[in-house]
Amino acid sequence: MYKALLQLFDDVQANRASARSVMDEVFRLLILERAKREQCIENLLHDLKRTVDRLPLAAENIVNLIGQHLACKNSSRLPVLIVAAAYKVASEKLGERILHLHSHNAADKQTGAAGDVEITLVGDNDVVTAYEMKMKAVTIDDINIALEKISVHKGTIRDYIFVTTDKIDLEVREYAAERYDDTGGIEIAVLNCLEFLRHFLHLFHRLRTAFLDAYQELVLNEPESAVSHTLKEAFLSLRKAAEGAE
């Protein structure tokens, strides 16, 4: 493919091919590919609609489904969407809401964000809880960086929560807990992503299907630079299999 592309560039440079024709063909192929992907998603959504009368998935089945999705390649954005979906469906009951979600490739230093997901009280705009997602083990250095972020947020943050898909070192968990007195009552915690989800689904058991729908919506609405088409298709296929769609 790379050799063919270089040959194409060479042909354009040597006037053996029209740059305009090449550009038109590239756009034509991109539009066809986009239509193909959209049709694939529509077909999977249609299959899922046929399962609406089936028994809703149990909380543990939803945890397993999300776990399978997290195990897919290039899934680093998914923990953010898991937490976002949880707050989206439980916002009214919690009296809290997501302030906004930053772009997946925007550094906190650029945006001034306290974390990947920022939570505020309903009717307010001050960040009271910040979540930072890690696809690797959380370190003591990560906690120290979080303390720096907390210090520049006007003292409004009372909870800073790391959510990781990796193992949690006991020393790190203890170090986080010990910062409570040092910070004058700010909680810093390190949680496992799936355990966070499991607890949420049992605490808000009647919202478990709403959570799954919200997560699906967030996944499908993410740009492909954050959640690839393959990852979107994988979730719909996994959900279809979990719900027993024919």
Explain how this protein is built.
By secondary structure, the chain is of the alpha/beta class. It has a single domain (59-242), classed as Restriction Endonuclease (3-Layer(aba) Sandwich). The protein is built from ten helices and five strands; from the N terminus they run H-H-H-H-E-H-E-E-H-E-H-E-H-H-H. The chain has a five-stranded mixed beta sheet with strand order 1-2-3-4-5, sandwiched between helices. Helix 6 (140-151) links the parallel strand 3 (127-134) and strand 4 (159-164). The longest helix is centred in the first third of the chain and has 31 residues, at 19-49. It is globular, with a radius of gyration of 22 Å. The chain starts with a helix and ends with a helix.
List keywords for this structure.
13% strand; 246 residues; Restriction Endonuclease; single chain; five-stranded mixed beta sheet; globular; 57% helix
List the helices and strands and how they pair.
Blueprint: H1 2-13, H2 19-49, H3 59-70, H4 78-94, E1 96-101, H5 108-111, E2 117-121, E3 127-134, H6 140-151, E4 159-164, H7 170-182, E5 187-192, H8 193-203, H9 208-221, H10 229-242
Parallel strand pairs: 3-4, 4-5
Antiparallel strand pairs: 1-2, 2-3
